[in-house]
Design goal:
4-stranded mixed sheet, about 500 residues, 19 helices, about 65% helix, mainly alpha, binds zinc ion
């Protein structure tokens, strides 16, 4: 979802807290890049079943290869060249019927326009608040109540501002986040529960905005000319704090995280985690089907709260090979320290954003400040202008933030292929993401709008990996066959037939 914080709804909905308020574009821009970065490949497939049943199907990681897949016996020298990557990619892309492709394209391309309209609506709301003096009126009222104590005034202003913006943008929010999602079969909630969650999100975003405004206006008052640099530092600290508390304080407001049921698939995932140095002893499943049909997984948290979770849509409808492929990707985010790399990148981006705000605010305030009733940049009444400038900034740099995210996602993709060794599982899940992401964009389109690699890019990556690992995959399949033949008849309790660390017939 969403580099500018103004864009499409993505797989991971843990950004509920910030998603609806134009007021929060600032924080949303920060939060959402993370949620996007960490929302994973997902998918929907027709079959369903419990994890144990699915785990029993897992001896076919390479068996569902497309036609043109590796021959049974491969000669060492010619093997790679005999696997036609392009043909295999085409085969995957052709899985989407013309109707499905048209629907997927329409949903995703509509998202481009929604991003654009988000900006225009944010600017319109800012103009209304300033032009008609609503923002100054909120400030004056709160100042009276708070007896001119500046921190309390900033916090009180944040409450009034956020509520007003929520109301003004509600029709648009209902259209984009409720009506349109239902129209594309991606939402599962009726209006009442959906709206109730919007109100919870409003509460969370109001608290977040209040904290942000208290901090930022204190810095503006005290650091004056260099507030934008101090503000950038403070924003990153606040963002790290938000990442830290999110799994324990925010996500539980919307969803329940439970341990994944025991079984071979869970053991596979934990084994992959151990092999890659991840200190995980539990895999979590989040009940995302409450809100959406999208399949997803994510890494969230920071320091001690970090956890890797898959959503129940993925668990119910993904094959074991697909689930292993997705979890390998998520582990990549963790092992490659993407959270810290994003925080580092965002110190720079936010500093640039605040510099832009400082410059733009001075110019526009000089011309209109008196008419708007905004005293100076230290006056919270000017926050609509602050937010509008930051919205414009993030909109302009969307290709940059998307590219930062997309590059990290591609890294996690490669990591996942190496860790899970499921190129076909990864390719098939990438195709299933056509539920909400256009599969085959043009190169410029992908550069500008994609915060994850496109389906075509991911399938191509997976098939290239497969072509270079044919011998390994063939040996794995042969070893699996041999183990099955020599192994005693399957144990009756299929769910527990493997113990930690053992080499079982499925792997
Ligand atoms: Zn990811």
């Amino acid at each position: 979802m969403t580099s500018s914080g103004l864009t499409t709804r993505e797989g991971n909905k843990s950004d509920l807290a910030v998603r609806h308020a134009v007021a929060l574009r600032l924080l949303a821009a920060l939060f959402l890049i993370f949620t996007i970065a960490f929302s994973s490949p997902s998918a929907v497939s027709a079959d369903s079943g419990d994890p144990i049943t699915q785990a029993d199907q897992q001896e076919q990681p390479t068996a569902d290869a497309p036609a043109g897949a590796p021959p049974q016996r491969i000669s060492p020298n010619t093997a790679p060249s005999r696997f036609d990557v392009e043909a295999a990619v085409r085969e995957y892309l052709d899985r989407l019927s013309p109707q499905e492709k048209a629907r997927s394209d329409a949903y995703f391309e509509g998202g481009y326009w929604i991003q654009f309209w988000n900006v225009l609506i944010a600017l319109l709301v800012a103009w209304l608040l300033l032009r008609f003096g609503w923002s100054a009126a909120i400030r004056t009222r709160v100042e009276d109540w708070m007896k001119n104590r500046p921190n309390l005034t900033a916090a009180g202003y944040a409450v009034g501002y956020n509520l007003l913006v929520f109301v003004l943008t509600l029709p648009w929010t209902i259209y984009t986040d409720f009506w349109r999602e239902h129209n594309y079969g991606l939402a599962t909630q009726s209006f009442g529960p959906w709206f109730a969650e919007e109100l919870v999100g409003l509460g969370v975003s109001t608290v977040g905005l209040a904290i942000f405004l208290v901090v930022i206006y204190a810095l503006i008052r005290h650091a004056r000319a260099s507030w934008h640099l101090w503000g950038a530092g403070a924003s990153i600290v606040l963002l790290a704090l938000a990442l830290f508390v999110s799994p324990v304080a925010i996500e539980p407001l919307f969803n329940t995280y439970k341990p994944m049921p025991d079984g071979p698939l869970k053991q596979d995932i934990l084994s992959m985690a151990r092999a890659n140095g991840i200190p995980a002893d539990q895999v979590y499943v989040v009940d995302a089907s409450r809100q959406t049909t999208r399949i997803s997984a994510n890494v969230s948290g920071l320091f001690g709260t970090t956890r890797i979770a898959l959503n129940d849509n993925l668990l119910d409808r993904g094959t074991p090979a697909e689930i292993r492929a997705v979890m390998g990707h998520e582990m990549g985010h963790y092992v490659l320290n993407h959270a810290w790399k994003f925080l580092t990148a965002f110190v720079i981006i936010i500093a640039a954003g605040f510099t832009f705000v400082k410059w733009g605010f001075a110019r526009l305030h000089a011309r209109h400040g008196a008419a708007w009733g905004v005293r100076d940049i230290a006056d919270p009444a000017g926050f609509p202008l602050f937010a509008a400038l930051l919205t414009v900034f993030f909109f302009i740099i969307t290709p940059l933030t998307n590219t930062i995210s997309r590059s990290a996602e591609a890294e996690a993709d490669i990591f996942g292929l190496n860790a899970a060794m499921e190129p076909d599982g990864f390719a098939s899940i990438a195709m299933k993401l056509s539920d909400y992401r256009k599969i085959d964009p043009g190169p410029i389109e992908e550069f500008v709008f994609y915060d994850h690699p496109s389906g075509r890019a991911r399938v191509t990556m997976a098939m290239r990996w497969k072509a270079e690992h044919l011998k390994l995959l063939t040996a794995l399949a042969a070893a699996r066959d041999a183990a099955e033949k020599t192994e005693a008849p399957p144990l009756p309790d299929k769910g527990e037939r493997r113990s930690d660390g053992s080499v079982s017939s499925d792997e």
